[in-house]
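Q: Got a minute? One more chain.
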Amino acid sequence: MTDAPIARLTLLNETLELPVVIGTEDEHAVDISKLRGNTGYITLDEGYGNTGSCKSGITFINGEKGMLRYRGYPIEQLAEKSNFIETAYLLIHGQLPTVNQLTDFQKKIDDNAHLDPNLLNVYKGFTRTAHPMAMLSSMFNAGGCYHPDIMDTDTDLVTIAAKLIAKTSTIAAANYRHMNGQEVVAPLDDADYAENLLHMMFGQGKKSEVDPDHIEIMNKILILHADHEQNCSTSTVRMVASSGANMFTSCSAGVSALWGWRHGGANVAVLNMLEELDRNKVDYKDFMEKVKNKEAKLMGFGHRVYKSFDPRASILKTSADTILAKLNVSDPLLDMARRLEEVALEDSYFKDRNLYPNVDFYSGIIMRAMGIPVEMFTVMFAVGRMPGWVAHFKEMVENPAIRISRPRQVYTGSTSRDYISVDNR
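A: Always. Here it is, folded:
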């Protein structure tokens, strides 16, 4: 790592020297932590697009090069060679596990996958039409009530993390069953995490055969969503954790942030767009022309961070080709998605603007082909993202320099107003 330069900021004819921090991937940041104390000024960065909120060693993204790495490992290698639990261990511990370490971690997951019978009674208070993300967030907080050790600062954070990761898939599957008026299926004790998730969603109460291709693809979907640096939901988890809140509550807040259509709901927006096009019998070529003329919005294409291509989408595209060919699904929405993809990949307008299909586009059509309803898309995203959230929680609370998150603002409201009693207004 080279010596860092010094940034100089001139305010009111005075120059302030600001240190520059350089990361291990040669990322540069100007440290403004003493700016307000020395000058009375703050910076304004709505949306935090230019603000580094922390130093983190978990995930690295280079949007210009289409690069995503977990703890230094390229996402392409993990998606091909790893499984979700091994990737979760990597994110939480910072290194790949040995055989014994992976076995021990898997056992912690298996031992904590079952839900307390009294906790299942909470579902009686939810209507069948309750959104599964609302249930997921609520069940995390309710589940924490049955594990008082999560409030004990002496409890190993990895143990708490294993409990939360284990129960996330069980709760997610129970949400799906509740929506469909079905009895909850108990988790298996000797199954792959992705296999167990699909078994609990679609099984009949005993170990049922889950398509190996579905298990493989679900593992990929979960791995590809396991972390994505300081996005909205991860930043929410870290902010809530900075207050001293427990891991269950902090991740419940992450679920709420993920729910929004600009974040985890993006793949839902893709299916909603396809349904609208199909319902109105819109010709896909006419629609893409309207997109080019800025008369329509194309969901699931392009990305705020990735400026060349989304590496996760490249991986899922191959999986989508495999599963759609095998299932031979007859679905007008999937047909429409394929036609939009063909245009975007061939038309110079979309190629020149890097409007390529992103991970939300492919994950949406894959999950639809697997029979997962659109209401569950964001829930599946949350299942995948849990290891990232708990890794960031752990990284933050183990930092001895932790401070409660407290952004500043530039006030733009009324000033110097005198109170007038209600009788005289």
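A: Residues 297 and 418 are 48 Å apart (CA to CA).
Q: Perfect, thanks.
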